[in-house]
Amino acid sequence: MNRAAASVGRFLLHTKLFWGLAVLYGAGIVLSPVNRKGANIFLDPGNQADVLRQVANNGIIAVGMTLVILTGGIDLSVGSMMSLGCMLCAMLLTLPGWTAASTASIPILALVAILLCSYLVPLVASNVRRGSAKPVEHASLKMRLAGLVAGLLVGALLVWWTTSQLQSKFGVLGVLITVPAVGLALGAFTGSVIAKGNLQPFIVTLAMMVAIVGMARLLGGETAAVYPVYTGSNATEDFESLRALVLQVIPVPGIFFLVVVLIFGFVLKYSAFGRYIYAIGGNEQAARLAGIQVDQIKVAVYSISGMLACLSGVLYTSQYRQGKPDAGAGGELDAIAAVVIGGTNLMGGKGTMTGTFVGVLIFGFLTNILLLKNINSNIQFVLKGAIILAAVLLQEGQVGLWWKRLRARTKKVSTGESRRDEVLQDLRKN
Amino acid sequence: MSSVDLISQPTEAFALEMLRISKSFGPTQVLRDVDFHLRPGEVHALMGENGAGKSTLMKIASGLIQDFDGQILVGGKPVYLTSPRDATRAGIAMIHQELSLVPELEVDENIFLGQEKLQSLFFVDRKSQVQAAEEVLKTLDFHGPLQLPVSRLRVGEQQLVEIAKALVSKARILIMDEATSALSINETERLFQVIRRLAAEGVAIVYISHRMEEVTELAHTVTVLRDGRRIGTVPAKEANRKDLIRMMVGREIQEMLAEDKDAAAVAKPMLEVRNLSLEHPSPTPSRPMLVQDVNFAVGAGEVFGLGGLLGAGRTEILQVLYGLHPGTSDGQIVIEGEPVQVLSPLQAKAHGLALVTEDRKRDGLVLGAGIDRNIGLPVMRTLTHFGIVLPGREKALAQSMMQKLNIHARDIEQTTGSLSGGNQQKVVVAKCLVTKPKVFLLDEPTRGIDVGAKAEIYRLIRDLAEQGLAIVLVSSELPELMLLSDRILVLREGRPTALLDQSEFSQETILEYASPGGAIQPEFLYLEATR
């Protein structure tokens, strides 16, 4: 009986995250206003889809943040990175020819293609045969050369393709490839500085956060203006496809979010790369001693984070029909909060993508419920803060420890003398 | 052997009483109903194997562990110690094995840390602090300069600073954990004099030590713990070596299982090290390099010991061999006759080197991850297909290693943080063995593990040597080093001073060569000349 209770308790403890979401969802249903026909507005498919749309931006950033935090790091630059992505996207879409945006991003795109191919081609090629895998450093010269050639080819192709679009402005595929590539490059730079300089991620990404928001504003020119994006008039019609509803319910940004969660959830759980991320966050020194190339993994993680942040910037542009240099302001904190609520340990090594997904949804539904109840939006912030605190306290088990200590304190002082007598009696007996 | 009569004593006669102390870390119970009584003016030795619970018991007494069962009385009054600060207030001070000084603060600042002398409300009165520190240190026979960071002092001097810190806080109960493990013979002697004088002044001293000679020389009373239980408390005068060992180990053992070790064939060296050196991060005139002029060769099937005091550079040698100090180290590493370049652990692994670090929790294991994850980590690439882990292969590997090394665990997914010290160590060894090494570097392989696991590790080391691995062993426990090694290279402050064959092994010889100012074998004298 006791054991059954314990295992039920353990089950509840393991799934507490989902219970939190379920409680919130239940509250949403109960508190929701009802429309004229008597239907629950909260449960309306349109409303549910709206939540998914609203969380997509923060969610995509949170996925990258999960990887970074799992290695024991943190990425404060993602909000700025999103702003930069947003500005780049809007400018590429609306301005033809060689603008600041295109002159900066096309060479970076080529560079990313070259570096990525010359790293990935030998890696994949040397892993083709089962069990004979080697690190890239041990790949043969031929393979490396093949990687470099492939990189140059792909790079040249991309440059040709993007410059050919310059006269008529970028298409949707153009921005979806170019903008995240810029994020990847900036993230790789951040990661390299952290790994090679052996510096604290907090301070390095803080510097990047400041610098990148400056870049985003510089891009906009003197006035740091907002760039309106009117699909069909000053931008290509296809860009509207990022606002579309698939099957008339699911918003495209939501699909991006779900796909990103699935991909990186899979990577984290089943790939060697994922194992390394956990190992580095769990004990970096042990990982290093096991021969893992910690530096490479760190660079990769920050690159992914930057890439996803810029992707999120593209989606922002599509949803709000504008490029704004402060689109992502504060985005890093929302993402960190979602990751932490999802049970990922800020020290690294512990956490899941599922947790982050649930954490993102908890925030999304909370905002939605308050919106439907028409509650002062500033209360949202207070409630968000309270939820973060409560979630972290519960997860760290600190509440239980407080209780234990309190009990110990009251118990021990009262039984002091009698215990000695007991012991002495025992000694006398022997 | 008469037990110490406790019953006739009134409560006030004890400086410290610990009654029915129990404590468990996770699933492992480290203390069970332990009683400990300490009189004023007494030097009370606390003995036991690694993992017997000595340090845990004393951490409880000094307020570092608050979450335990039992009762503590100081001077007859029950106390509840919620922090080291409480313990200081109760007059209890502990000097840890790893000293707890702030390296960048100066001597007097360290001594008065947390109890600063204040001029007015805010400002530290350095002048009177220095004065007071000087006074206390003089009574401890310490005459060095005070205006320098403690990191610049020798370990022995740092120890004295720790004691001064305790004395300044008016400690009446002084707990010393393995105080002499880093000291030379002279420093040890000086420390003993200080301890004797303090005891004569009525300070009660708990002295944790492995070294039997020290205990019989210094202590009045000996308490032995084994597997978290108090086995007995006896007057030191009546305790003889054999009895103590029996109490500690729980059975009669020949002190040295003088195993029949075949003189290893050094004819075919597996590992050769030439002119190995490592820069000192903050060199001093007395210690310009961390490691200097180290040469040795280890044959296939040989266990090669590195002896020396703490800080002699033994660990650093292993680290350099494993590629952990690229850039600051120099010298040549030859494996099976091939000179190799080792600038990273990855390269070390590729050349057949494996390292078991001295601190398995800090460097060896991902404590939050399961056994299978840990064992698979160094060879993850062989467990994947296109970067995706093949879980079956990972599990099979972990399973086979668990059987081979006799690792006890609930299942292969149990987190390594919840395993006992011995089993954790076996996981670390397993992690190394899966890389199929040729040269095995072992740094304190039995630190903090129980007797049974220790014996298994010993057997394993011997087995691996027999299979033709070259093994380089570092151990601070001299009996262990002598038991396992075929030859021992003794180091002193980063330089070799003697190469001993099995016939020359003895604790005295090793300590003599290891202590500053001690002897040097003629063939190493040229090193002194170049200094």
Could you provide a short overview of the structure?
With 430 residues, chain A is mostly helical. Chain A contains 17 helices and four strands.
Element layout with pairings:
The complex is a heterodimer of chains A (430) and B (531).
Chain A: H1 2-14, H2 16-31, H3 45-70, H4 78-94, H5 100-125, H6 141-166, H7 172-197, H8 201-219, E1 227-228, E2 245-246, E3 250-251, H9 252-270, H10 272-282, H11 284-289, H12 294-320, E4 322-323, H13 331-341, H14 353-372, H15 377-395, H16 398-414, H17 416-429
Antiparallel strand pairs in A: 1-4, 2-3
Chain B: E1 16-25, E2 28-38, E3 43-47, H1 54-61, E4 69-74, E5 77-79, H2 84-89, E6 92-95, H3 107-111, H4 126-139, H5 155-168, E7 173-177, H6 185-200, E8 204-208, H7 212-218, E9 221-226, E10 229-235, H8 241-249, E11 269-284, E12 287-299, E13 303-307, H9 314-321, E14 329-335, E15 338-340, H10 345-350, E16 353-356, H11 360-364, H12 371-376, E17 384-385, E18 388-389, H13 391-405, H14 421-433, E19 439-443, H15 451-466, E20 470-474, H16 478-484, E21 487-492, E22 495-501, H17 507-514, H18 525-529
CATH C-level class of the largest domain in chain B is Alpha Beta
CATH fold name of the largest domain in chain B? Rossmann fold
- For CATH, the homologous superfamily of the largest domain in chain B is named as P-loop containing nucleotide triphosphate hydrolases
Count of spatially separate domains of chain B: 4
- How many strand segments of chain A? 4
Average pLDDT of chain B works out at: 83
Profile the largest sheet of chain A: 2 strands, antiparallel
CATH arch. level architecture of the largest domain in chain B: 3-Layer(aba) Sandwich
Residue share in helix of chain B: 25-40%
The chain-level structural class of chain A is mainly alpha
Mean of all residue-level pLDDT scores of chain A: 83
- Arrangement of strands in the largest sheet of chain A: 1-4
Strand arrangement within the widest β-sheet of chain B reads 6-7-8-3-9-10
Could you tell me which chain pair has the largest interface and how many residues each side has? Answer: A-B, 47 and 49 residues
- Regarding quaternary structure, what we see is heterodimer
Rg of chain B (CA only): 24 Å
